[in-house]
Specification:
The chain is mainly α. It has one domain. It has a two-stranded antiparallel ribbon with strand order 1-2. A hairpin with a 5-residue loop joins strand 1 and strand 2. Helix 1 packs across helix 2 and helix 2 packs antiparallel against helix 3. The chain is elongated and about 60 Å long. The protein starts with 6 loop residues before the first helix and ends in a 26-residue tail after the last helix.
Length: 125
């Protein structure tokens, strides 16, 4: 794991690495893609926090002394980060739709060792 990733990205990394190792889809060259997914997840969580703190819409002053309401920029940031996470997870067969076509390793079916992918979605906190 790259040591300079934020804690949320590190938690994501650990969860996904375990799932990928078990499924037999992990290779040494996958580190960069997993880092991008982990860091996108951390950005997603940061954007979600900004939305919780400030709402979906925000007010800003106009040049004439009034206020205008606009979409919180964090909404777009969150959407982009989520799309990046989904795209990369799909490449490793970690979404339900993509698992159907995945050629997995020899450990598939050993449910005692397998971690539920829902754990990825519970990493905030």
């Amino acid at each position: 794991m790259p040591p300079d990733m934020p804690p949320a990205a590190q938690a994501f990394w650990n969860t996904v690495i375990e799932e990928c190792r078990f499924s037999g889809v992990l290779s040494r060259v996958d580190g960069k893609a997993l880092r991008l997914a982990a860091e996108s997840w951390a950005i997603y969580l940061d954007a979600q926090d900004a939305i919780k703190d400030h709402g979906i819409v925000v007010s800003e002053p106009t040049a004439h002394g009034g206020m205008r309401v606009k979409a919180n920029p964090a909404v777009a940031v969150r959407a982009k980060a989520w799309k990046e996470v989904q795209t990369i997870l799909a490449k490793f067969g970690l979404t339900p739709a993509d698992r159907t076509g995945l050629k997995a390793g020899a450990n598939v079916g050993d449910e005692d060792k397998r971690k539920d992918i829902k754990g990825i979605l519970k990493l905030h906190g």
